[in-house]
Write a structure and sequence with these properties.
The chain has about 500 residues and is of the alpha/beta class. It contains 14 helices and 27 strands. The protein has two domains: about 5-390, Rossmann fold (3-Layer(aba) Sandwich); about 395-490, GMP Synthetase, Chain A, domain 3 (2-Layer Sandwich). Helix 2 packs across helix 3 (about 80-90) and helix 6 packs across helix 7. Strand 17 (about 335-340) and strand 18 (about 345-350) form a beta hairpin.
Length: about 500
């Protein structure tokens, strides 16, 4: 391994005046009749898309929203959601994307922390719930109701203006909202477009959720930035992936290891060879799965690395060896450093977030002399390939989604038969990691089954956070200060359920 612990990507030049929305507008005004998105049999061209986002932005402004207001957005992938997302950014609103599987307690926390003025949500049952949490919220579906009034000025946001608050899990306390500016979102999408040679001739098959940085900040934002096109899907469906890929002459697919695990088992997997680029991220891609995709699918998947706070920062090369088990090299505009003591990977660059919403102390603690501390442990090979070897942080990544262990602990411990609980991530071929719970029963109660725990947890937590397996123990391992030692949870216990 190298002794030089700092490496940089190629230079990324962005003028002082450039913004994400300004760059989109410039890109999409060319050839307005050219197809931009297709979804569920409906197509939309560039010019129509700009008109619809302008109209939706006007409707939002005439509902009383002004630049700088926070707005919660949630729903399955759809054209309405994409139009609403872009309209909000063009108006200068700050988007708070939300996982559509969240439960009441999770929503309540976001509302109380981000203090949005509006919510555009497609889950009808959420409308009444949100109103009960904050009766002053303007609530609509992503297909915003038409309102008469003046047309506001659009695309006036400045590079450093906040554009997005993406909530992410940490090691202590509740989830934190990472604030991204117009400039950091632009840099994140632009660096990927340069590295992957993404052009207006590309068509992306996009089934990743648009509440996540991978699907939204790279898939959607990148498509708009380069002026390419995308086929949107509500979610991952392998039959739709294969059919839409052929029908629309797609050239790119972005996924997570769980998706590739399912695709490689399908007899049609060889059709992936028609794509010029398949990308995997959000969780480690097992080396044997990488090889299976090569052998059966004829595709050399490009693995990359990033965080909610930094966007994508490291990627295997588009031209060159895509090394299994490695995430490659720093992207353009990114510098990385390996802390000599902890081996933690530190990141600096234009795409790094500006801080956590209303949390100055946590922001300061997340940086070291201007470098963001990712919480991931890494090493750099002699030929500069970077490998991620683990995490300092306790966060679990399952199916590409982040799970904050303490949040799950607290819910499970509310069960009347359970005295203590702690969850941790166990390796899974399909999910990358799966949530496993270690529990101590109340005195006089001998056992509980996984189905009962899952049923109870489902009342309070999104489905991906609910434990898949269960270990009953007499006590939880703790240090001298009483802190649970989650790494020891992985070393012992008979696991019940699947």
């Amino acid at each position: 391994m190298r002794t030089q612990l700092v490496i940089s990507g190629q230079e990324l030049r962005i003028s002082d005046e450039e913004t994400l929305v300004g760059s989109w507008k410039k890109s999409l005004e060319k050839e307005p009749e050219r197809k931009l998105f297709s979804f569920d049999g409906r197509e939309i061209d560039r010019g129509t898309f700009l008109d619809l986002t302008s109209k939706t932005a006007s409707d939002l402004a005439n509902s009383g929203l002004i630049p700088g207001d926070r707005i919660l957005i949630s729903g399955e992938n759809s054209l309405d959601l994409v139009i609403a997302h872009v309209a909000c950014l063009r108006l200068g609103l700050i988007i708070v994307p939300v996982n559509s599987s969240y439960r009441e307690a999770e929503l309540k926390f976001l509302i109380e922390d981000a203090r949005p003025r509006a919510a555009l949500v497609d889950q009808k049952e959420w409308h009444k719930l949100l109103n009960s949490i904050d009766s002053d919220l303007f609530i609509s579906s992503t297909a915003v109701e038409t309102r008469s009034g003046r047309r506001p000025d659009l695309d006036l946001a400045k590079p450093d203006d906040p554009a997005l608050i993406a909530y992410t899990s940490g090691t202590t306390g509740k989830p934190k909202g990472a604030i991204h500016s117009q400039r950091s979102l632009l840099a994140g999408a632009l660096s990927v477009a340069r590295a992957w040679e993404w052009t207006e001739s590309d068509c992306l098959l996009l089934c990743l959720p648009l509440f996540h940085i991978h699907g939204m900040g790279i898939g959607l934002h990148g498509t708009l930035l380069v002026g390419g096109s995308a086929v949107l899907q509500k979610g991952f469906d392998k039959d739709l992936v294969f059919s839409e890929m052929a029908t629309n002459n797609c050239s790119m697919f972005f996924g997570v290891p769980t998706m590739y695990h399912r695709l490689v088992e399908d007899e049609r997997v060889s059709q992936l060879a028609s794509l010029r680029l398949c990308v995997s991220g959000s969780a480690p891609l097992p080396a044997d799965l990488h090889q299976q995709l090569k052998d059966k699918g004829g595709v050399d998947v490009l693995e990359r690395y990033g965080t909610t706070e930094t966007m994508l920062t490291i990627s295997n090369p588009y031209s060159g060896e895509r090394r299994a088990g490695s995430v490659g090299f720093p992207l353009p505009g990114v510098e990385i450093q390996i802390d000599p003591e902890s081996k933690e990977i530190l990141v600096r660059g234009e795409s790094v977030f500006k801080g956590y919403w209303s949390k100055e102390q946590e922001t300061n603690e997340s940086f070291k002399e201007g470098w963001f501390k990712t919480g991931d442990v890494a090493e750099i090979a002699d030929d500069d390939y970077v490998s991620i070897n683990g995490r300092i942080k306790e966060m679990i990544i399952t199916g590409g989604l982040n799970v904050y262990p303490q949040e799950v602990d607290e819910v499970i411990q509310l069960h009347p038969d359970i005295a203590e609980a702690a969850v941790s991530g166990m390796k899974s071929q399909e999910w990358g990691e799966e949530v496993v719970a270690w529990i101590v029963m109340e005195e006089g109660i001998d056992s509980i089954n996984i189905d009962e725990v899952r049923k109870y947890a489902s009342q309070h937590l999104a489905s991906y956070k609910i434990p898949k397996r269960l270990v009953i123990v007499k006590e939880l391992p703790r240090n001298s200060l009483g802190k649970i030692l989650r790494h020891e949870l992985k070393e012992k216990g008979v696991i019940d359920g699947k």
